[in-house]
Amino acid sequence: MLGRRHIVVAITDSNTLEWQRKAAQDWSPAVGISGVPGGTFRFLRRLTAAIFVIGLTVNSALFGSSASAEPRPIHQTVATAGLATAVRGTQVQVSSPPRVPAAAEPLSQPVRADSGSTCATGIEAADLNEYFSSEQSSIFGADYQRANRLPDGRTLWTFQDAFVRRSNGSLELVHNVGLIQSGNCFSLLRSGTAANPEPWLLPELTRNEKTWHWPMAGEVSADGSTLQIFVVEMNSQSSEYLGKVVPTTNRIVDIRISDLAVVGYDLAPDSSDELFGFDTASDDTWTYLYGHCYKQFGWEWLGHAECAQHVKVARVPKGDVKAAPTYWNGSRWQSNPAAAVSVFNFFDTGEGVNQVDVIWDGEKFRLVAMADWWGPYARFFVSDSAQGPWTPQGEVHETAKCETCNTYYASWVPWRNSDGSLIWSVSNNRWDGAVSSIYRPTFHSFTAVAR
Q1: pLDDT, tens only, 298-355
Q2: DSSP label at residue 51
Q3: Residue among 296, 311, 322, 356 at smallest CA distance from 146
Q4: Cα(381)–Cα(311) distance, integer angstroms
């Protein structure tokens, strides 16, 4: 649940001209922070960018350029030569062999009979937007919406920090819940009872607002019997909820698809706080695990940690997320996690935080990234390979729902509208985090550019 927001600008290179170009972009949010007028906030963001540019200029003047240095990969912040190598390591274009066509178009609309406690009018972007605009299946509001297609035609959605309606009419903060969608209809997945709802995943390891678990990406197992959901353990180091939050353990929770029973959990093969599994995407051969450090509250000067600008990637055989991953080091896949390099970052978006969602459309990988946790821009990219490089395909200004509201975390819906356009969604909240009907995802269409 993102009521609070912080700002960070990460420096990873001394190429002054490029930083001046990036700093000259309009960093203005559409809304202000609670108690801070939007104009004041825009001024502070521009001032911060200007201070960094001045510092970089002085750095270049005093120490000179490192353009002749040998490029090397980095982990977090290391000054290296060259704009591209500073954040991605030495980039090598690897020609992929022609893909074998998948048995079915991966983004075709799912087909399943209607079954659930509440129903939408359809599954197009407009239908989903209407459905989620009001309380549904006892969920008053939630964020970080993620949709996982199941092989039987259903879709399993997960959410973070949902406000769930108790049987007495009051609301309870539940750190994770699910919705199972069959056709146009949805039903709630949780633990506990209607009178005392509890998190669906790992309630036995949860201490409300102290130690909790947020679902990340999910992948169907190679044999098609299980949905494997990456789940991060979050720990509070503050007396205030979300004052400072430390992501610690990365687990995989197994959901039996036939009856949606939680049948087990274990540490992910890479259970580090790099959080490979924050997002996943699968083509015909591989499942790609995108890592994001998720350090968003109480870190460094302006809130989130420098690592929040970076996305790294590993891969495993398709559906085998419990196999030891190999990591992209800028030129090849290899087994050393410390050699993994950033494949998407500030130099792609001009933002200090980059949470992404990647989907494979049967031919190309498509990425959507929200411009930091305060919005307001969703940016779209495409690549022939899971590790990039990523080609921009446009951006959308996502208008906040009120003057003191914000937008964050954009994600794909894993099917197309009937006109062939893609469906994406975004989370919404108030800056002060007060419980309100603002706290619900919205859904939109995006027409990809042919290339």
Answers
A1: 667 666 788 889 999 999 999 999 999 999 999 999 999 999 999 999 999 988 889 9
A2: H
A3: 356
A4: 14
Residue 400 is encoded by which pair of tokens?
A: 């906040």
What is d(CA 116, CA 139) in angstroms, rounded to the nearest whole number?
A: 14
Listed residue (232, 48, 164, 160) closest to 409, CA to CA: 160
Q: Report d(CA 244, CA 122) in Å as an integer.
A: 40
Virtual torsion, Cα 217, 221, 226, 230, nearest 10 deg: -20
- Range of the structural domain that residue 232 is part of: 118-446
68 and 186 both lie in a single domain: no
Give the H or E element holding residue 42.
Answer: helix 38-63
Domain match, 150 and 36 both: no
Q: For the CA atoms of the chain, what is the radius of gyration?
A: 21
Give 364-373 pLDDT, tens digit per residue: 999 999 866 6
pLDDT confidence of residue 9: 34
Token pair, residue 89, equals: 């390591």
CA angle 148, 181, 160 (to 5 degrees): 60
Give the span between the Cα atoms of 45 and 25, in whole angstroms: 11
Structure tokens belonging to residue 354:
């980059």
In a domain, 290, yes or no: yes
Give one DSSP letter per residue of 372-394, joined into a string.
TTT--EEEEEEESSTT-PPEEEE
Is residue 411's pLDDT more than 90? yes
Question: Quick one: which of 292, 345, 343, 300 has its CA closest to 13?
Answer: 345
**141 and 26 belong to one structural domain:** no
CA distance 37 to 300: 23
> Do residues 41 and 150 both lie within one domain?
no
